[in-house]
Amino acid sequence: MQTPQRTHHTTFKAPVVVPSLIVVGLLLLVCSLWPAASGARFMAAQAWVIARFDWFFVLSVAIFVIFLLVVALSRFGSIKLGPDDVAPEFSFVSWTAMLFAAGMGIGLMYFGVGEPIQHFVSPPNAVAATPEAAREAMLMTFFHWGFSAWAVYGVMGLVLAYFGFRYNLPLTFRSGLYPILRERVNGVLGHAVDAFALVGTISGIATTLGFGVMQMSAGMHLVAGWQVDGLGFKLGLVAVVVALAGLSAATGLDKGVRRLSEMNLMLAIALMLFVAIAGPTAFLLRAFGDNLGNYLSSLIELSFHTYAYKAPNEKDWFANWTILYWAWWVSWSPFVGMFIARISRGRTIRQFVIGVLLVPTAFNLIWMTVFGNSAIWLDTHSAAGALTQTAANVDALLFRFFEYLPMTSILSVAAIILVGVFFVTSADSGAFVIDSIASGGAPESPVWQRLFWATLLGVTAVVLIVAGGLKALQAVTLIAALPVTVVMLALCYGLWRGLMADDAHYSQSMAPATQFWTGQHWRLRLSRMLKDHTEEDAKQFIRQVVTPALQTVTNELRTSDVVARVVKDSDEVVQLSIPSASQRDFVYGVHVLKKTAPSFLPRDAAEPASEQPHTYDISTFFADGREGYVISYLRPEEIIADVLRQYERYVLLASDHRTDLLKGAPEHTNAPR
């Protein structure tokens, strides 16, 4: 009996996984053994990066927004993320739910009340706790959670999805650098890029899990009165989240992650609607219009505002909020961008940009209005300043806010469940992304690998919670945002080059000279197509085929008293011209055209012209500057037919008065000079 062939037990790429685990282990060791000292050093390094490169973060994020809009509105917007005939893998609702849950779901729960209240207490340009402070608080909250944030995720996701699905490259971080690194993406540089992304993703998700446990613990203490300060409770909470995340990851992307994300979205919408109805509804409706108008009218100014002419306290606010946010979004972009890329196959670039920029941003702005404006209104009308007094304790602020709404206990329980589900979704989508990076973008990997990464995320969070190293690792993640931003700018450049190559490759239509070909003498035509013509071959074709054909037409025209002549400037250029006193002369010109050899893959077309092989063709040119076309495959009688076709067009245009303006314009040929 033949033993069945064993399949691979792992798809891990050792050059990526081993260095990453070593670095993560060292970071955990440092943050655990010396939490205070490492935290101080890393925070100092973070402050240095923010103080020296705040302008760079501001300019880069603004570039990301502009870049996405330009790409979406250009002719490249219709390019699909995948083959031209592929359909989207997920419905629009499922797709939106997943990118929303992975990108910002948990952040909205944590900062939906916290950030507006904190800005209300300490606004950058207004007197605290005044109507002006409330308006500015919502403006800055909108700015931090609006288009700019999603543009960071969108750039990363678009680049990875494009090169992964359009160029058939592995769905990993390194693939976005293919136009720059070329084949070196498969070597040491590519491994280093993926390892860097892997360490950053593990660190970012683990710290978020740790802070999420803090918020859930605070909520359970306020709602049920449980003692949640003990490590046993927090470790048990992490274990439950990781176990559920592992179960979801094991069931696959289409079932586990998709269904959890859809449930997240439905619960979030239900909670938001209840708060909007139970809270100051009429005020919220007015406030949203005011917030939106204020945000849109201030967007350009805010996007480039670096507080260069402001007082030190305002600069501190700018560094501690806006720049910290930009660094946080960038540090999370490898994880969120790769997950968005994974679920976006089959959508056009325009659909991708609209979906990633507009839909989540709109939801974020509505959410922040409902929770943020409600909290500010309640604090000034019902709570007598109780919420602003709790502003420093963001972990408990959401649940304090619920105390001033009906059905407080039910709301708090629903919020805890929603936070928990968001964490599970972040952990299981994180396990998918980490496994994809670690596996070199392998389409299929064993279930145990995703379980391994989910467990590692939980262990990392547990170690940080026990040792008190969450702040230190968070600072490391934010420091890493500086090189990631540099890489993302390079990704924009690489994507543009790839799109240009894609457009040139896929938009190439059949040569106009083939439109009247009947298929006769196909063997001769095929032999010419398969041959790479030298410059001498092209010159010989002009001498022996083109020139006699043009002379034949000229001789026939002269029998009808039409003044025509063949002008041969050199062995590379010949033209038949018919002068006219009332309009442009008729010109059917032919010249030798040096061009790159045909490319049969977009990645080949992306090579610089100097590095690609060249061939020589015979191309037409005309007096009106129209684009010429190759006639290297035509026989003499077919060239004659093409001349007559162009001359017939010339005669018809002569009688069309709509073209009078162009008739007398100077000649503008594309012939070589």
Automatic annotation (TrEMBL):
Membrane-spanning parts: 12-35, 55-78, 90-113, 142-165, 186-211, 231-253, 265-288, 323-340, 352-370, 404-424, 451-470, 476-496
Name where it's found. Cell membrane
Q: Which Pfam families match?
A: BCCT
Q: Which domain of life is it from?
A: Bacteria
Q: Give the main localization category.
A: membrane
Keyword Zinc-finger set for record? no
- Annotated GO CC locations: plasma membrane
Q: Which UniProt keywords apply?
A: Cell membrane, Membrane, Transmembrane, Transmembrane helix, Transport
Q: Which family does it belong to?
A: Belongs to the BCCT transporter (TC 2.A.15) family.
Which PANTHER family does the protein's record reference?
A: HIGH-AFFINITY CHOLINE TRANSPORT PROTEIN (PTHR30047:SF7), HIGH-AFFINITY CHOLINE TRANSPORT PROTEIN-RELATED (PTHR30047)
NCBIfam families attached here?
bcct
Q: What is this protein called?
A: BCCT family transporter
**Native source organism of the sequence:** Dyella soli
